[in-house]
Fold this sequence. Notes:
Layout: H1 6-30, H2 34-40, E1 83-90, E2 93-103, E3 112-117, H3 126-133, E4 136-137, E5 146-147, E6 158-162, H4 179-196, E7 203-209, H5 212-225, E8 233-240, H6 247-267, H7 271-283, H8 286-293, H9 317-328, H10 368-373, H11 412-420, E9 423-428, H12 436-443, E10 447-448, E11 451-452, E12 460-464, H13 472-477, E13 489-497, E14 500-505, H14 512-515, H15 517-527
Parallel strand pairs: 3-6, 3-7, 7-8, 8-9, 9-14
Antiparallel strand pairs: 1-2, 2-6, 4-5, 10-11, 12-13, 13-14
Helix pairs in contact: 4-5, 5-11, 6-7, 6-9, 6-12
The site of one 2-acetamido-2-deoxy-beta-D-glucopyranose (NAG) has 4 residues, from loops.
Amino acid sequence: MRWSLVRSALLALSVESVYAGQLSEVSRRKGFTPQLKRHAAPEPPKDKRFANETDSFRFYNDDSAQYFVDELPDMPFDLGEFYSGLIPIDMNNASRALFFIFQPTVGEPVDEITIWLNGGPGCSSLEGFLQETGLFQWSWGEYAPHINPYSWVNLTNVLWVEQPVGTGFSIGDVTATSEEDIAKDFVDFFLNFEKIFGISKFKIYVTGESYAGRYVPYISAEMIDRCDEELLDVSGALMYDPCIGEYAWVQQQAVAFPFIVEHNSVMGYNTSYMKELEKLDQSCGYADFRESYMAFPPNGTQPYKHFNSSTDAECDIWTGSYLEAFHANPCFNVYEIGLQCPLLSDPLGYPTDLQYSYPGLPVYFNRSDVKAALHAPMDVTWLECSPTDVFVGGKGGPQDEGDFSLDPIQNVLPKVIEKTNRVLVSNGNLDYEIITNGTLLAIQNMTWNGAFGFQHAPNTTIDITLPDLMYRDIFVSSGFDNGTEEPQGTMGMQHYERGLMWAETYLSGHMQPQFQGRSAYRHLQWVLGRIDKL
Ligand SMILES: *[C@@H]1O[C@H](CO)[C@@H](O)[C@H](O)[C@H]1NC(C)=O
Ligand SMILES: *[C@@H]1O[C@H](CO)[C@@H](O)[C@H](O)[C@H]1NC(C)=O
Ligand SMILES: *[C@@H]1O[C@H](CO)[C@@H](O)[C@H](O)[C@H]1NC(C)=O
Ligand SMILES: *[C@@H]1O[C@H](CO)[C@@H](O)[C@H](O)[C@H]1NC(C)=O
Ligand SMILES: *[C@@H]1O[C@H](CO)[C@@H](O)[C@H](O)[C@H]1NC(C)=O
Ligand SMILES: *[C@@H]1O[C@H](CO)[C@@H](O)[C@H](O)[C@H]1NC(C)=O
Ligand SMILES: *[C@@H]1O[C@H](CO)[C@@H](O)[C@H](O)[C@H]1NC(C)=O
Ligand SMILES: *[C@@H]1O[C@H](CO)[C@@H](O)[C@H](O)[C@H]1NC(C)=O
Ligand SMILES: *[C@@H]1O[C@H](CO)[C@@H](O)[C@H](O)[C@H]1NC(C)=O
Ligand SMILES: *[C@@H]1O[C@H](CO)[C@@H](O)[C@H](O)[C@H]1NC(C)=O
Ligand SMILES: *[C@@H]1O[C@H](CO)[C@@H](O)[C@H](O)[C@H]1NC(C)=O
């Protein structure tokens, strides 16, 4: 799901161990037993399934039958057609295998597969399934799961994959040192998936978020390079809050200070600290960099940058302010800075870099009944983000992740845009993990379809007309007759040049489909070619 610096992950672990004891004490005092409450809650009746129901399922066959999922614990819904399990990367040696969930569209059948990937590296795409793009949603602070009215399954067939090896339920030796390695494993897996489910001549769309800003272009490029229009017809791609450029320097440090100035009413830094940050912004060269390169068209190629956390420690505006933010707001959420206390529980145990769920509430995918229902390996402890590296390259590579591939803006992202002319790159404005203007700066150092960067500054609004389908009933029952029938309004800025669509999303954190489901729904409609403007 999300990408987070090792230093913040370490912080999260130590904070968690301090809090764990205190929280269970509080819960004992209050007699809070969410487990009991959950089971006492009335469950809506489930539709009865007939023995012959699978006859109407499009992808059900002798090979796929073993992956069919009939029901999921605590999901009181008809799952419809639903599959999950492990598929080997190499059918002749099942020791390395990726875990997937596949759900065909609940709308009109379409000959498409949309792949969704979370980031990390090492974070599970089942987070995207349960909290962002899936048909059922069980998100932060939610007592129970519900139908997601903005699910991508409404529009297309969606495949969530836990990758690379080392992530979630996926099994096998971790061997990757680059995005090329990961992409090769993924495409091998994907061809096996297509074979099992009887899929060919489908359009393929590759989407994801955060560190998947590296996975998505490399996987798409690997598909393009294999020149197989029947099985690997990449037709578009989408990346949210993505690591497409030099992310520590350009997408965090260089743009942190103006972000803070714009948002300090919720970040809460004092005047003397703001002065300190401003000084560093100047002395470390960030202000000059923006002045020179935040330009449309761009003012030349950006110089090479690398943030070395030991030698550049004094210029680490981003981590410094990240840590200070917890003083004013102990519930500070780097992925969505608008959130204040109380800290929301996460059924996946990871709402912020503080890992927290209601005491007694197990991590959903780590439950043995859930593992059994999903055909997942019972002996794997499921964690949203892998505690061990999914690359074997130590701290090497341009981004110190052991991932030795070039940044996507250098080669592979241009290749994907040029092949499909349907690539969307988007950033949420309340995300401090990957900052909107940093992503735009990364684009301004990329050459695609015969020119360098965007020639014009984004100036066109995104107006969301889809009505609220999620909270309407609550408005009505609270006496606001028609309070949410109105269109949502202007929710972002768009800009299109030469096959690349840029979308800045207002009031959204890092996980855009979680925070602005209606905007994300529209983004997908564009990527799938159903509409021509956002
Ligand atoms: C399943 O069986 C029921 C009862 O025999 C029948 O009415 C229905 O049409 C069948 N459904 C399919 C998809 O074959
Ligand atoms: C399968 O691959 C693993 C490495 O992932 C290797 O150790 C093992 O020997 C292979 N098994 C066979 C039967 O080739
Ligand atoms: C998505 O599908 C669900 C279930 O069929 C429906 O209730 C919802 O209105 C649909 N959402 C959109 C945006 O069309
Ligand atoms: C982002 O950059 C634009 C110029 O393209 C500038 O007008 C805006 O103030 C910047 N926003 C933030 C939050 O830095
Ligand atoms: C263009 O960038 C150079 C640094 O490479 C800088 O000296 C110059 O002032 C910039 N020009 C503009 C118009 O920002
Ligand atoms: C900008 O792109 C050039 C190559 O075109 C690369 O050498 C340089 O490192 C990039 N700079 C940043 C900050 O990404
Ligand atoms: C960071 O700087 C130190 C000290 O100069 C150096 O030893 C180290 O190799 C650098 N790290 C990277 C990833 O460049
Ligand atoms: C201002 O904030 C900084 C950073 O959080 C803190 O170290 C300092 O003590 C604060 N100063 C005052 C006067 O509160
Ligand atoms: C996952 O489940 C295992 C045993 O089933 C348990 O030991 C472990 O603590 C659980 N981990 C989390 C994060 O819930
Ligand atoms: C917006 O930018 C386009 C170029 O992308 C330009 O043609 C148009 O005049 C601009 N509109 C406004 C209102 O500035
Ligand atoms: C509902 O909408 C109508 C027409 O826009 C308006 O006249 C009426 O006052 C609204 N009712 C409420 C309770 O907002």
